[in-house]
Amino acid sequence: GEDVEQSLFLSVREGDSSVINCTYTDSSSTYLYWYKQEPGAGLQLLTYIFSNMDMKQDQRLTVLLNKKDKHLSLRIADTQTGDSAIYFCAETSDSGYSTLTFGKGTMLLVSP
Amino acid sequence: NAGVTQTPKFQVLKTGQSMTLQCAQDMNHEYMSWYRQDPGMGLRLIHYSVGAGITDQGEVPNGYNVSRSTTEDFPLRLLSAAPSQTSVYFCASRPGQGVVGNEQFFGPGTRLTVL
What we know:
The complex is a heterodimer of chains A (112) and B (115). Chain A has 112 residues and is mostly beta strands. Chain A has strands at residues 4-6, 9-13, 18-24, 31-37, 43-50, 55-58, 61-66, 71-76, 85-92, 101-102, 106-111. In chain B, 0% of the residues lie in helices and 50% in strands. Chain B has strands at residues 4-7, 10-13, 19-25, 31-38, 42-51, 54-57, 64-66, 76-78, 87-94, 105-106, 110-114. The chains are: A mainly beta (112), B mainly beta (115).
């Protein structure tokens, strides 16, 4: 089946930039998503990118997509302690019904 | 809109008991799904539905049943609970094919412990 891989852990200092990386295998991916999960909570959609885009910026968040290498990244500028959470990358195609395939999540720890 | 709602928030069962986890959405979404989340395993798809009356199995369907009699509701039934089903269960919905973004919205989760 299709696969999505993420590094498991990232630690940064408050004020630094964080970059969370994701690779996927499905060449028919249409949408790629980033979700945030805070402790004890559900998943919250942060942003998504359409597969024909290279970059999407939304306030402190920048998503970069390298479709050739099937590599997705999420950059958080000026990382705050409130950004500490687990971040999930997910992908889906838009042909027929397609499930979302999730990575295992990257735990981001922001220290003061 | 309430979005995706799940009940109960917490549940403790004994091995062999059965129960139903409830899920409802008020966004008129076609697609609904159930996931379980276990430490180190990420999210795994249990069952999903592409519309009322249509369901299919995901990655880990054994021990679970679903039905979709209405667009709004998608209950998950545990037939005979086992300790291996101790997990956090998330219900999710999304609009369906052809909708730009086709974003998936998650419920708050049900934390289930099977003793």
